[in-house]
């Protein structure tokens, strides 16, 4: 599962003070004393929102804060240039960078759009020799970038690449061999090219400091013997998530060497060859039983349900279970889930059907996060899960905070029930797969259901809507969604009013992504008062025109307004009245210098 | 499908669909609601892009643009719902699936596509492609192509665009020189071969396309000198099979 760094705010991109001389307003002595005292105090300030507030007090506070900030979070890699960021913050030990907009995950961003790690790693190589941690999400990372990273930071300890692409096993090999103090190597939902390099063998001989090795997304065979030896000499290893090329027999061998594991990704969870009857198989259950600290289980990429009982010994302690690659039915699930009383996070495929969800609701009273993914991502008349399972969860899991639910059918009643039963909801993402789908029973739009969510769930910060929605739904969102920071809209709404309600009402809005909805220039222009407070706005296949986008760019010089389409090239930009295929705009202190030809910056 | 029909009637007019999605979107919608399924492999727009993503390392924009154009003949139909640059909107094929909908990550979708056992869907047929002397492998989904010519064009694009000068030795630089590479590919110096289900290495093009897609496990573009032994065996195998 992807992990995000602790909640952090957006405002790291503020301008540094105009003058950087040390003692310009007070006598040098007093100023230095102040800064020394301040620096010693600020060391204790870890939350970046607080740090941003501190930096606003006055110039010397801003400077002191900049000198003491150890963790740099850049929510949009194009919001500030690497040079500017490294000039302001001098003593950074940990950097988090996010690149492409989220809709890139769904093939809505043309290839080679950008978010290159290269300029960042090269700036940091010079500025932060003491760098220890790098977290990248949706960035384009090459093997060369990884080589620069591995060679530039002798104290480097933690690398996490989430939803990244552009590198391969060659890059991993360089990191493994050169980062001698490596504690964390987490590759999560990234695309890794198979260069046929045995990167596992590249870790140094002797005891390692490895605490976390996550490579379940790496779709290449690995050298198992080398992995076994690596695990054996990594006594601090707590998190190990294997890829599909590790069969269950190999999993056993690893588990008996690492009973201290807390997080385990089981790999394929099936034997490498057909197991004949009478073959001696290891006692998998005993290996699981020996892992007394195991709290998080995932993997099961090619699960043969016969092997499920092996995990029974750990179920009672599990707080997180990811079955989202396991094609199992309700009955098979029940045997496991009925033992998981402490479960808080559960990801699963809809193959478990509504019955399976009822079993979850019956046992997992502590559930905080549920994600139900579709096996079959086509628009269908019926699906295995529906409002029935949804309602069961609403009634059984009252502590729910986060839900992502794909289904073919839904009712307002079920959604309203969840809004009433689960007041702690922070994240509500409902995806009714057939577009423009109405309430299954009443055939009305889904306005009232989503309206109830924003009205009753007073802690809601993230919302994704779907189904048949009129402008009324958006009026509810604007009226009640005062804490909503992230909103996703797709194939919804009737007119510009929908978007206007949102832009005028949602005062906390930071990230707005919209596709295929009838919102045009008039709606776009109604958000001028708010765009500097937002990280980005994405609108694709809507009704905004080049003229409207240009007007935004003209009035708001602090925004970068990117306009592009798949078949665009520099010579054929189109007329001012033409509807643009994609608008992606974001506040920024920099101009992009690396935009591909199809991106037009207005 | 009934709900769909009723919805249209309830809102009074078909035009509503056109307001939102345009002819293409509406057509999509109706087709989808009628329960027609797209074979996963046949949707060129999304697959085309995923294909391009599979090309991973060292993509030059030229290469990806070329690859996208190759696969993307359908792209404007599905994606360009609002006729972005003033081109006339072409209605999508009847069984088209909308790009990026539902919002399941490509990574997850690919994995589930390979596992899916529901009837009526063609699984993807990913095979590795290596070229002697090239530093990196690629993967292709053979179901994306309908003929040897299409596959050959795609392979040519894939291996012709390594960026010059970023790799080590001079020899590598020469290899990466695009025009030299294309000459090599087009000449008889390089022979595409494949490993079939029996583990034998065969000459690409000897068997009918569908048979090839079913039996090919791996592709290798060999240097001509190594491929000499292939042809006779391929002929024998065909004779044995027929």
UniProtKB/TrEMBL annotation, chain A:
Pathway: Protein modification; protein ubiquitination. GO terms for cellular component: nucleus; SCF ubiquitin ligase complex. It is found in: Nucleus. InterPro entries: COI1_F-box, Leu-rich_rpt_Cys-con_subtyp, LRR_dom_sf, Transp_inhibit. Residues 14-23 have a biased composition (Basic and acidic residues). The keyword Nucleus applies. SUPFAM superfamilies: RNI-like. Residues 31-69 form the COI1 F-box domain. Keywords: Auxin signaling pathway, Nucleus, Ubl conjugation pathway. The keyword Nucleus applies. GO terms for biological process: auxin-activated signaling pathway; SCF-dependent proteasomal ubiquitin-dependent protein catabolic process. PANTHER family: F-BOX/TPR REPEAT PROTEIN POF3, TRANSPORT INHIBITOR RESPONSE 1-LIKE PROTEIN. This is Transport inhibitor response 1-like protein. It comes from Escallonia herrerae. The lineage of its organism: Eukaryota, Viridiplantae, Streptophyta, Embryophyta, Tracheophyta.
From TrEMBL, chain B:
InterPro entries: AUX/IAA_dom (IPR033389), AUX_IAA (IPR003311), PB1-like (IPR053793). It is found in: Nucleus. Residues 70-80 have a biased composition (Basic and acidic residues). It comes from the Eukaryota. Residues 124-224 form the PB1 domain. PROSITE patterns: PB1. Transmembrane segments: none annotated. Keywords: Auxin signaling pathway, Nucleus, Repressor, Transcription, Transcription regulation. It holds the Pfam family AUX_IAA. SUPFAM superfamilies: CAD & PB1 domains (SSF54277). GO terms for biological process: auxin-activated signaling pathway; regulation of DNA-templated transcription. Residues 1-47, 66-97 are annotated as: Disordered. One of its GO terms (cellular component) is nucleus. Belongs to the Aux/IAA family. Aux/IAA proteins are short-lived transcriptional factors that function as repressors of early auxin response genes at low auxin concentrations. Homodimers and heterodimers. This is Auxin-responsive protein. It comes from Escallonia herrerae. The lineage of its organism: Eukaryota, Viridiplantae, Streptophyta, Embryophyta, Tracheophyta.
